[in-house]
Design goal:
By secondary structure, the protein is mainly alpha-helical. The protein folds into 2 domains: 85 residues; 95 residues, no CATH class. The protein contains 10 helices and 2 strands. The chain has a two-stranded antiparallel ribbon.
């Protein structure tokens, strides 16, 4: 029976190493004298760690599924083995995946309404500097008239445009990945959810929201 490839020591060390980095970055951002620049840079770096963790989990899950696919040539004798590998792929590093998604969504909800007023504190040009928006796209964003973090990263997808090649443009930056699950779930369930979230969070000044996906099932944001 073919089995999924083992997880290497390096792959298993990654969560601990990145967790230490995340703790350091959180401490830096939490300092009383932390500037808006520091807070946004640390937020992006933390989100990038979680994005890379999700990518590594997805790569490893696909490797397991490829092993399952090889067994399809020997059906029906390998049906049970295939089911086992598919279940293993679905469960592989699930706790880490759930944590990473939850953390990204938390950052996304906070930056969606910019609870700390980072965009206003930075100003348009400095905000573009921190987000690595190219000079060409910066003018496009200026004409658009909405200099919010959400608009620059999610609506216009200009985060890290200064360093991206044309074929890489759909990949986006780390903050884009924090906004995407919020938008996808909002549009799937309630098209008016984003506006409602903005109003609620602007009043409460902290991100708390739950989306009901199906009857009896709540999806925490």
């Amino acid at each position: 029976m073919l089995v999924a490839p083992p997880i290497t020591k390096l792959q298993w060390k990654e969560p601990r190493m990145s967790s230490n980095l995340i703790s350091t970055l959180r401490n830096i951002a939490a300092k009383p004298n932390a500037s808006a620049t520091t807070k946004l840079i640390t937020a992006r770096r933390i989100c990038r760690v979680f994005v890379r963790r999700l990518d590594s989990i997805q790569i490893e899950r696909r490797a397991i599924l490829r092993e399952a696919a090889k067994l399809e040539a020997f059906l029906p004798f390998t049906r049970k083995a295939i089911a086992g590998l598919e279940r293993r792929a679905e469960e592989h590093r699930e706790a880490e995946r759930s944590e990473a998604r939850s953390e990204l969504i938390g950052f996304g909800m906070s930056l969606l309404v910019d609870v700390e007023g980072l965009a206003d504190a930075l100003g348009f040009d400095r905000l573009c500097d921190v987000l690595s928006v190219s000079s060409v796209h910066r003018e496009q964003a200026r004409q658009d008239g909405d200099a919010s973090i959400y608009n620059l990263t999610m609506t216009l997808n200009l985060e890290e445009s200064a360093g991206r090649k044309r074929e890489e443009f759909d990949d986006g930056g780390p903050l884009l990945h924090a906004f995407v699950p919020i938008v996808m779930n909002a549009y799937d369930n309630r098209p008016d959810l984003l506006e409602a979230a903005k109003l609620e969070l602007a009043q409460q000044r902290r991100p708390k929201l739950r989306v009901v996906r199906n009857a009896g099932e709540a999806w925490p944001l």
